[in-house]
Design a protein that fits this description.
alpha/beta; about 50% helix; 13 helices; Isopropylmalate Dehydrogenase; globular
Length: about 350
Amino acid sequence: MKIALDVQGSDKGIPVVVDGARIVAAEGIEVVLVGPSDEIASAGPLPSNVTVVNATEVVSNHDDPGTAVRARKDSSIVVGAKLVATGEADALVSAGPTGAALAASLFNMKRIKGVKRPAIAVILPDGRGGRSLLLDAGANVDVPAELLVQFATLGAQFSIRVLGVQNPRVGLLSIGEEDGKGNERVVHAGQLLSDPENSHYFNYLGNIEGRDITNGNADVIVTDGFTGNVALKAIEGAARATMMAIADAIRSNAIAKIGGLLAKRSLLKVRHEVDPNTTGGALLLGLRGVSVIAHGSSNAEGIAAAIRLAARSVEGDVTGHMASAIAELNAHAASTAAVTVGAVETESSNGALNDA
């Protein structure tokens, strides 16, 4: 198992990213640090299972992702993605700009055959000690209904292979639970997701509302990238505000401080659950290789968590299982379309005979 780690782009600098590699190296994971070798060397000695591939350029948040990735062939994110594409690494992890990671991974690893567009998937705490998966979280602002079915299939396979969920429950994010609620695309997607053939891959629940994202009722929440990103940022903001409110309440008087001390262990557990450093980051699903985007503000533990997430994805052969599921899904869609066309042609022929 060898994970390519882009050392550039992190808000906390190269030394923190290298420290994250050291943590997982002690657990037996082999890491390839991709970036300026002189700066990596200045971060201190490396374990024997951590190697370095020099890359002199960087893609920043200020760059246009597609243009920069095409132009800067020696940027760390591009070199890392190429290592995965050529089989020299099993997965890519980066705490750099999301757009750059998406572009570099897409251009080099390519899409799984039959996948129209990759999606950004984010693991969220479900409020019951478990995890749910939200996708798309920003890769595709506007998508057709058929693509939401692909997202559901991709997310279900990840949920099974990495999160250990059997028969994942899939919910379609909408403005109401009732069938028919939502815009035209969501209504159409609900009809497609309800196809009994999909029960081979997941358990479709129907529509869910925003309040259901973190209550544990669905294992996979499917939506377009615009809605998903807004929902994700709202959840992050609400979690941060809640923790601040709890801290302020505990500091408000002596009795509250005593209560805070008594509840400290439980409160720390809650903070751990909502901390981005715990989940490891977002994943790009639908590619021929594993690509994980760590949070830009990740500390060393957060980087380590992202590497572990990438390693689990490789161990679970997520990409292979996604490819098989998408091939079957597309084959069923093609056969259904053929039957529909045949029925229409037959009806037209009968009509013509009757007219004659």
